[in-house]
Design goal:
Elements (H helix, E strand, L loop, with lengths): L2 E5 L7 H20 L3 E3 L1 H6 L11 H20 L3 E6 L7 H13 L6 E4 H10 L6
Parallel strand pairs: 1-2, 1-3, 3-4
Length: 133
């Protein structure tokens, strides 16, 4: 089963925003599982407090979370997996997502990454409930 790394913004202006960002990443991961991929969703570990304070109020927690995400993205790349990213509504990527994507592409430069806004992912999942990206 091929892995897919799910990247996207984690941090937000408030706790509700963090929860919303995590729910989006988890929903995309669930979609990946339904179509036969093995999703790696670091957001689920972040909100569970694996890296430290889930609201990332402590700068060390944020640094640790990004560093772990970068390593996981690299491991997925090295194993031949895919990289899917949730972009912000303006199409930009969060700092952590940019770092994760850079590491993935460093190790899997010949592969494409799939980057869509959440609205685009929702439309894609609705149109292709069993399709591959």
């Amino acid at each position: 089963m091929r892995q897919v790394y799910i990247a996207g913004p984690y941090a937000a202006n408030d706790w509700d925003g963090i929860v919303a960002n995590c729910q989006r990443a988890i929903e995309l991961g669930a979609y990946a599982a339904r179509i036969g991929l093995c999703p790696i969703v670091p957001h689920s570990m972040g909100i569970a407090g694996v890296y430290g304070d889930p609201d990332e109020a402590d700068p060390e927690t944020r640094e640790r979370a990004i560093a772990c995400g970068v390593r996981m993205a690299g491991a997925v790349a090295a194993g031949g997996g895919e990289f899917w990213a949730i972009a912000r509504e303006d199409g930009s990527l969060s700092e952590g997502t940019r770092d994760e994507q850079a590491e993935y592409l460093r190790l899997a430069y010949h592969r494409e990454v799939v980057v869509r806004t959440w609205a685009e992912w929702v439309a894609f999942m609705a149109e292709f409930p069993e399709a591959r990206s």
